[in-house]
Amino acid sequence: YIKYFFNAGKAATDNPNNVGLILPFEIAKRAPRKRLAKSNLELTKGSVLLQELYLRVDVRQAYVDLVSAKSALKILDDQRKLLAELVTVAQKKYDVGAAPQMEVIQAKMTLNQLLIQLNSAKTDVYLARYKFNILLQTKNLDTAEDYLPDKTGFGQLLTPNSSEKIPEFDKIANIAMKKRLDIKNALQSVDVAQKNLVTVVRQRVPD
Q1: Residue 109: per-residue pLDDT
Q2: Which residues contact 39 (CB under 8 A, 6 or more apart)?
Q3: Taking all residues of the chain, what is their mean pLDDT, rounded to a whole number?
Q4: How far is Cα 60 from Cα 158, in angstroms, rounded to an integer?
């Protein structure tokens, strides 16, 4: 602080009045606060990047779930068409006496069981599409394909190929420490806490 005092009033005739002015003047506090502000900024940037990463992962998962549900529905619908044809053939054979009625009954029962699965699959598609659009905050967005182009299955989009050679644990751990945003954010939080401690320690203790 800068303190400045002077006397006011006429000498020898007026009562002496003392006028003072105290101004705060920071010398060693600005640098820690500046470092703390920069560290907080980096932490905020890291938090934004981490949320973007989570969003990309969620969108990818929702996309795969929707295509998977549509694929299952497509397969069941193809089976429905085939069973419907079998029911028609069985009925024609029964009508001309070339097959017993039980064959028609069994074909119809199989078709009815499949229709139950088909309705369930339709519900799964509607639910997957709803979740996908909710995540993207859209209404009628859909995937361009009913099947994923990779013949090895949907899991390839979510997990590494089991035939690929996995690196050693130490190498994976080192990559994670350098690349994972949540770990970098945690380290940045520690840095913010340390700088905040320095700033608090240097603050003036009140009388």
Answers
A1: 95
A2: 188, 191, 192, 195
A3: 75
A4: 8
User: Rounded to whole angstroms, how far apart are CA atoms 27 and 44?
Assistant: 28
pLDDT level of residue 5 (50, 70, 90 thresholds): very low
Nearest 5°: the CA angle 51, 170, 45 is 20
Q: What is the DSSP letter of 158?
A: T
d(CA 15, CA 139): 82
Helix (H) or strand (E) holding 29: none
Tokens, residue 8 = 């006011």
The CA-based angle 89-90-96, given to 5 degrees, is 90
pLDDT confidence tier of residue 31, bands split at 50, 70 and 90? confident
Are the C-beta atoms of 2 and 175 separated by less than 8 Å?
A: no
Alpha helices in the chain (DSSP H): 30-95, 101-136, 169-179, 181-202
The span from the CA of 84 to the CA of 160, in Å, is 40
**Per-residue model confidence (pLDDT) at position 163:** 57
